[in-house]
Design a protein that fits this description.
It contains eleven helices and two strands, in the order αααααααββαααα. It has about 270 residues and is mainly alpha-helical.
Length: about 270
């Protein structure tokens, strides 16, 4: 007899495509959770405009590099994969740099050397090595998009706090004047202010992520045990109260025993 091919079983714990996008926003945020790319996160976040520009440029490079690395994952020799990844990344960084120079010269002057330094950003190289080189193109694109969104959210969050407290403005709109009762704190747009805001936001993100993980774990445990046994069988097994002890010793009628066995089987 010919052997029948076994059907692959679906893994209930396999991450969904939606999770590939959302994981980079908080649970695996590259800045607040993984503590990667901190140098540009502190250097360019003196304003929301600079933060948004760096985030969009990095997202473009992340998405494009992940796609190309995934498409070439069976072609690139393992011994030269890191130099190959850097060449791929540097090509897309050059494209992004030329676009910014042509259409956003003021942003190019503000970001300066940090645009070419996207090439050696450990977030982009890390995702290419850890994820894109081992996965198919579509999940790799989603991973790059999610990590890019998370990186942009982190930069904009830091830039928003620093610009509001340091300049009293958002995107050039001044709402706190220099002679107001509460004056802007210039230290917030200096390096010490960047480290202070970064530390506060990291602590907040860590705490929020821990709460989300705990709630999801409790929910998963409840879902896993739900429907395993019926209420009557659980009462008998427990025996913690008088009703449970009486149920253990009292004989069951045939119909009751039938329902109990059916509940255990389910």
């Amino acid at each position: 007899m010919a052997r029948q091919k076994e059907r692959p079983q679906n893994n209930p714990y396999k991450p969904s495509l939606l999770n590939e996008i959302t994981k980079g926003i908080l649970r695996e945020n590259p800045v607040f959770r993984l503590l990667l790319g901190i140098c540009p996160a502190l250097a360019v976040t003196t304003s929301v405009e600079n933060s948004l520009g760096m985030g969009i440029a990095s997202t473009f490079v992340l998405l494009s590099a992940n796609l190309v690395v995934s498409l070439l994952r069976h072609i690139i020799p393992p011994k030269v994969r890191i130099p190959a990844f850097i060449i791929i990344i540097s090509g897309f960084v050059t494209v992004a740099h030329m676009i910014i120079q042509a259409f956003l010269p003021d942003l190019n002057d503000s970001l300066g050397i940090y645009i070419p330094l996207i090439t050696v950003n450990c977030i982009i190289l890390g995702r290419a090595e850890i994820f894109a080189s081992k996965r198919k193109p579509f999940p790799s694109v989603l991973d790059g998009l999610g990590m890019g969104i998370g990186y942009t959210v982190a930069l904009v969050s830091i830039g928003l706090v620093r610009e509001v407290l340091g300049n009293g403005a958002i995107l050039g709109f001044q709402f706190i004047s220099a002679d107001a009762y509460i004056r802007p704190m210039m230290i917030m747009i200096l390096p010490p202010g960047g480290f202070f805001v970064f530390g506060i936001l990291v602590a907040f993100a860590q705490r929020l992520s821990e709460r989300m993980d705990n709630s999801s774990n409790h929910k998963g445990d409840t879902d896993l045990c739900a429907g395993a046994i019926n209420d009557q069988t659980a009462c008998i097994i427990c025996g913690g109260c008088g009703l449970g002890r009486q149920a253990k010793t009292a004989p069951m009628d045939p119909e009751q025993a039938k329902h109990t066995k059916r509940g255990d089987a389910e």
